[in-house]
Specification:
The complex is a heterodimer of chains A (435) and B (211). Chain A has 17 helices and 9 strands. With 435 residues, chain A is of the alpha/beta class. In chain A, strand 7 and strand 8 form a beta hairpin. The chains are: A alpha/beta (435), B alpha+beta (211).
Chain lengths: 435, 211
């Protein structure tokens, strides 16, 4: 396969790549100059033509999202979702650490296309270094007249602020993020109304992911047709994939969405295969919320369509985490279950209680006091929560059910064997000490 | 660890004097033009107050409410949702160990155990000298360098149990290399002494997570 010429990551590795001067010397802010001479409608059309689908996980087309804004609005807000709280995803961090101006340029173009007056970049609080880098880039942009009043001498003005989160997974959900900016608990809102109609401060609001917005300058510069020619028809454009766990080269890689999970893991210019002495057991290919693939299912294509064929929720954040044969599948199950139990916001009963009970069961199984019926109860609980059966406000419980369901289904033999190997006496003792 | 209950009956001894200096209040007010409502400045306010005073006590919450023109219970309501804020004194440096799957597979648990052993404290506890507090957090988004942990602002990558002693001995283990922005830092005028790092007995964040 031919090596993919990096687009989003083209400035990674360049000396001082976060500086405005360096960014401009490599063609930066040319797309913005071009965009400011276009009309907002033509920019939106171009993004629609590019079929730029949201990189945050849901894959909703960005141009269509912008099109939902009411025509007669007077004030519009743009939120940039840099919460990146899905384990084990770090593409946005890499983008912002290496190329903050690309994000700012994408933000300004998108804000111009939606005629927004203010853009908020929502950063999770754990991104301390990222915050300092992006804030410095914003300050530079203001000083150079790229942000603020009359951007680059045009009639368009935009203010851009960083809003720092404070440690909550659910604030990556767009309405949770909006609540968090409003200074409230980050509990997602019931939709409709969707944010495009009534969002932040009850004004029409667009929420886009960092990676999505970083694609926009390239679409403007090289055209929607160029963008849509990359990768398969339903999954166009460059995409960042990340891989972590016991692999030779954990990291963030850019490619078209025509690669498979096997490519990401094994190609020399990507994951490079497992660490010496480690044998692959399974991989969660799209952030943990999408579900698990066994070692036999690595031929899944990393696009928006193929994951469903393997029982997964979707492409998610395209961040793969690999675990090897020495990892107990019970530990994986427990780690995943604990995450959702600790991050459920507590609004919807079935999510609050369901994730907590799944965590209790998984903990019991891991500590050696599992029962075979626990596996069935896990599956039943998983079937009875989330947006798919229409029981929740946001997608967090769906994200909880897919990994748990796929782990139990695909590794049932191993789980049952582990349960069978427990001594009844020891299990009884463990139960006495738990709760 | 045995359960240690927080003493919520005895009011925390707080002085009559306001905790938030005028400079601090002014800094919070400087965020108002960014948002449509004053309440939206609450998260920035909590960050600045915690960065200045070390933690956000009930008195501080009341004073923040005063500045933002909202009810004190609204401040508590928001604050209690987020794991980053401390209502009780914490150590001078907070060690946040990542417990996500990547880090767990790459030995994060062993790193955490080693830190517990060396500091002699458990989760949500503070060392007697008030130097370190220890917590865990879901994914720190440093998975390409797992196992990772944060010491205040500094992300430490690819940490192994045998690195822990050296890491803890380093005085500058919380300093970051890049240029800092002072947006959420304490205002320069207010030479407020931190109320934290006092006795080390105040161990718990109010959020005891399901762990």
């Amino acid at each position: 396969m031919a090596k993919f010429e990096p687009i989003l990551l083209k400035n990674r590795g360049v000396v001082n790549s976060t500086a405005l001067k360096v960014y401009e010397s490599r063609g930066g802010y040319q797309a913005l100059r071009k965009a400011l001479k276009m009309t907002p409608e033509t920019i939106t059309e171009e993004v629609k033509k590019a079929n730029l689908r949201g990189r945050g996980g849901a894959g909703f087309p960005a141009g269509v999202k912008w099109g939902f804004l009411p025509k007669d609005r007077t004030r519009t807000l743009l939120c940039v979702n840099g919460d990146e709280s899905e384990p084990p995803t770090f593409c946005n961090r890499v983008l912002m650490e290496n190329d903050p101006h690309q994000l700012i340029e994408g933000t300004i173009i998108s804000a111009f296309a939606t005629q927004a007056q203010v853009a908020y970049i929502y950063l999770r609080v754990e991104f301390h270094e990222v915050f300092h880098i992006v804030q410095k880039a914003i300050d530079e942009a203001y000083a150079a007249g790229i942000l603020g009043k009359n951007i680059l001498g045009s009639d368009y003005s935009l203010d851009c602020y960083i809003h720092r989160g404070a440690g909550a997974y659910v604030c990556g959900e767009e309405t949770g993020l909006i609540e968090s900016i409003e200074g409230k608990r980050g509990q997602p809102r019931i939709k409709p109304p969707f944010p495009a109609i009534e969002g932040l401060f009850r004004l029409p609001t667009v929420v886009n992911n960092v990676e999505t917005l970083s694609c926009v300058p390239h679409i403007i510069e090289r055209g929607g047709d160029w963008f849509s020619s990359i990768g398969p028809e339903h999954s166009t454009g460059p995409k960042l994939f990340s891989i972590s766990g016991p692999v030779k080269n954990p990291g963030c890689y850019e490619a078209a969405m025509d690669i498979t999970m096997r490519d990401l893991l094994e190609r020399e210019d990507m994951g490079g295969g497992m660490l010496p002495g480690k044998k692959l057991k399974g991989v969660l290919p799209g952030g943990i919320s999408m579900g698990v693939l066994t070692a036999d299912e690595l031929d899944m294509k990393m696009d928006f369509a193929d994951p469903a064929k393997y029982g997964l929720l979707g492409l998610g954040t395209a961040a793969a985490v690999v675990f090897d044969e020495s990892t107990d599948i019970r530990a994986v199950l427990r780690n995943v279950a604990r995450f959702y139990a600790s991050e459920s916001c507590g609004q919807c009963t079935q999510c609050r209680e369901g994730t907590a009970w799944m965590n209790k069961m998984a903990t019991r199984i891991e500590s050696g006091a599992g029962r075979n019926e626990d596996l069935d109860i896990l599956l039943e609980t998983a079937r009875n929560m989330g947006m798919m059966p229409g029981l929740s406000i946001c997608g967090l419980p769906d994200g909880a059910t897919f990994p748990i369901e796929t782990i139990v289904k695909k590794y049932r033999g191993e789980l049952e064997a582990a349960i069978a190997a427990q001594s009844a006496e020891a299990a009884e003792q463990i139960l006495q000490t738990m709760n | 660890m045995a359960w240690k209950a927080l003493d919520r009956l005895t009011p925390v001894a707080e002085g009559e004097a306001p905790l938030l200096s005028e400079a601090l209040r002014e800094k919070i007010r400087s965020f108002f033009p960014r948002y449509e409502t004053k309440r939206a400045a609450l998260l920035p306010a909590l960050h600045i107050v915690q960065n200045t005073l070390g933690h956000v006590s009930y008195q501080a919450m009341e004073e923040i409410a005063e500045v933002l023109d909202i009810h004190p219970s609204d401040v508590l309501d928001t604050l209690s949702f987020y794991t980053h804020f401390w209502t009780h004194p914490k150590g001078e440096k907070v060690i946040t160990v990542c417990r996500s799957l990547s880090c767990e597979v790459m030995g994060g648990k062993e790193v955490l155990d080693e830190i517990k052993k060396q500091l002699g404290i458990g989760l949500h506890e503070t060392t007697p000298d008030g130097k370190y507090s220890l917590v865990t957090e879901e994914c720190l988004a440093g998975c390409d360098h797992s196992a990772c942990l944060l010491i205040n602002e500094k992300l430490h990558k690819c940490v192994k149990p045998e690195d822990v002693a050296k890491l803890l001995a380093d005085e500058n283990n919380d300093k970051i290399d890049s240029e800092r922005s002072d947006l959420f830092d304490p205002p320069p005028e207010s030479a407020v002494t931190k109320t934290d790092a006092s006795d080390g007995t105040s161990d718990a964040n109010e959020a005891q997570e399901g762990n």
